[in-house]
Design goal:
Blueprint: H1 2-40, E1 47-55, E2 58-59, H2 83-90, E3 100-103, H3 110-116, E4 126-129, E5 132-134, E6 147-152, H4 158-163, H5 168-177
Parallel strand pairs: 1-6
Antiparallel strand pairs: 1-2, 1-3, 4-5, 4-6
Length: 181
């Protein structure tokens, strides 16, 4: 009878140990999966800035559908984490407004917009942000309500172009009209 008590006590101990081990392993995997899910989560931001591009004194029109981001409602969640989707979310145009960029990712620079709309720019163009001359404009961060003016090729009446830059009021009007699902 003493052997049965010992065996039954040993079995209870092994069952308890197995149970504790199973709980520990489960907790580890749950914590790991939460960490991976957090890595895949993107901080939600949404702000706007204005821009104009002059090539040989001619203001470029980006209101054509070819420049717009078209995203259907109810988009598949798996595509939200693709590199292409993440790039487009950095800086894009929509709603037929060709002079207000929408930014949905931190760290967006002007290069992201022009990459996404597939518009080549002369890296030596003269560029102003909020009326101030900037260097290396393609790597210049896009900030809320900034107004970028790019002068590529022949440029005259620069001060007049800067006076006619996209205003904060225009950006706010575009924000108010912005369509969403």
């Amino acid at each position: 009878m003493k052997i049965n008590k010992f065996v039954s006590g040993e079995i209870k101990y092994l069952l308890l140990l197995t149970f504790v081990l199973a709980i520990t392993i489960s907790a580890f995997f749950v914590a790991r999966n939460r960490g991976e899910a957090k890595e895949n989560q993107v901080e939600e931001i949404h702000y706007h800035a204005g821009f104009q591009v002059y090539v040989d004194d001619k203001l470029q029109d980006f209101s054509d559908l070819a420049y717009m981001q078209i995203e259907p409602c109810g988009e598949d969640e798996h595509e939200q984490f693709s590199e292409e989707h993440e790039q487009i979310e950095k800086a894009h145009l929509h709603d037929g407004v060709g002079d207000v960029v929408h930014v949905h990712r931190n760290g967006a620079v002007w290069r992201d917009l022009f990459t996404n709309i597939e518009f080549p720019l002369d890296p030596n163009a003269v560029v102003y942000v909020n009326g101030n001359l900037v260097e290396d404009f393609l790597n210049y961060p896009i900030y809320p309500y900034d107004s970028l003016v790019i002068l590529s090729g022949e440029s005259s009446e620069i001060n007049e172009k800067l006076k006619n830059a996209v205003t904060r009021e225009h950006i706010e009007e575009a924000e108010a009209k912005s369509e969403s699902c």
